[in-house]
Design a protein that fits this description.
Its EC number is 3.1.3.12. It is globular and about 55 Å long. By secondary structure, it is an alpha/beta fold.
């Protein structure tokens, strides 16, 4: 199956609940025009890494792509809500998004959230796992080979091997063994394996809750965890024929093909997303 080209919505077999086909027009302009008629009831969701910001060898050094923040700021008053749903902690998102007004932040796959600049709220069931995660991060730094980057996020530990691809198998084997030992959940990603508490919270659940009474939604993501978010839009559309959902994949050389096959539209890069969103403001106004 070929990858959808930039700017073209294609009817590809989605990976979704119930195998529902995309309910979208045939191109991006038509999709935005359809959205314009229901903009006050539409939510725009964005992943952060690889979507709003290019992936970097150093995960602490990433910054949003040009035009992205300005476009989101312009779109915020035109739609019902804009939300960032990320594996990053809320505080990281807050610092890197420049204090955007009216934007909701969901961190650590929804284990944390902050609405419109308010306080950060943590899922109570995850809090008892903080000491376990701290101990796991220390163990990873002691046992994993040099070249592995251990990212401690308070409620999760991410094991990166981007700068040492040859370590991928060993890091994953170690991480999965620790998850089995401690009763943790594992989330695979772009040259990263993340270990999380066994708490029922993921991107799909976040999106499903937010769009229960929405008239439409777009989700922009680049990694396999975003497929659950796509599935939430598909499930909502299956339950309500009037709901208009669009799943957008941001291309990448690692997981991009799998994510693109689950999406309606593929965009070339975070930089291209900035241009795409800037153009979208014209459709919605």
């Amino acid at each position: 199956m070929s990858r959808p080209t930039r700017g073209t919505l294609t009817r590809v077999p989605p990976l979704n609940v119930g195998n529902q086909q995309p309910r979208t027009p045939l191109n991006a302009d038509e999709a935005w025009r359809t959205t314009a008629g229901r903009a006050p009831r539409t939510v725009l969701f964005f992943d952060f890494d690889g979507t709003l910001a290019p992936v970097d060898d150093d995960p602490t050094a990433v910054q949003p792509a040009p035009k992205v923040l300005a476009a989101i700021e312009s779109l915020a008053p035109l739609v019902r809500r804009i939300a960032i749903v990320s594996a990053r902690p809320v505080e990281f998102l807050r610092e890197h998004l420049g204090g955007l007004d009216g934007v909701d932040l969901y961190g650590l796959y929804g284990l944390e959230h902050s609405h419109s600049g308010g306080e950060t709220v943590t899922e109570p069931a995850a809090l008892p796992w903080v000491p376990t995660m701290a101990e796991l991060a220390d163990l990873a730094r002691a046992e994993l080979p040099a070249g592995t980057l251990v990212e401690f996020k308070r409620l999760s530990v991410a094991l990166h091997w981007r700068t040492a691809p040859q370590l991928g198998d060993a890091v994953q084997e170690w991480g999965r063994a620790q998850a089995d030992r401690l009763g943790l959940r594992v989330q695979a990603g772009r040259m990263v394996l993340e270990l999380k508490p066994p708490v029922d919270r993921d991107k799909g659940m976040v999106i499903g809750e937010v769009i229960r009474d929405a008239g439409g939604a777009w989700y922009f993501g680049d990694d396999v965890s975003d497929i659950k978010a796509f599935a939430a839009l598909r499930a909502r559309a299956a339950a309500d024929p009037d709901f208009f959902g669009v799943c957008v994949a941001v291309a990448n050389p690692e997981t991009g093909q799998e994510v693109a096959h689950a999406a309606d539209l593929t965009i070339d890069s975070p930089a291209a997303l900035g241009d795409f969103l800037t153009e979208a403001t014209h459709h919605l106004t």
